[in-house]
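Issue 218. Parser rejects a valid record. Input:
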Amino acid sequence: MFTIEHDFDATIITLVDEGDDRQPLLEDIAIAAFAECVTLTQYDARNDREQVVTLSMAQLRDLAAALNLPEGVYPLARQPAPR
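Output the parser choked on:
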């Protein structure tokens, strides 16, 4: 299950682990999409704090491309930045 919320400066997607009978549930993951980056936040009970990972937009594009490819190294052609 997931939720989507639109704030004034970001879109927030929360992924809720509904799990199954074979493994324990994991904490929710909040994904915040800003104009310049995307952050993933998940509570870590072992350290009693939230862990945050920040992806640049280039890293996010690479991740999206990588999800449907077999194992390997893939340099992506970059488009020149608009002037």
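Fixed in the parser; the record now loads. The chain has a mean pLDDT of 89.
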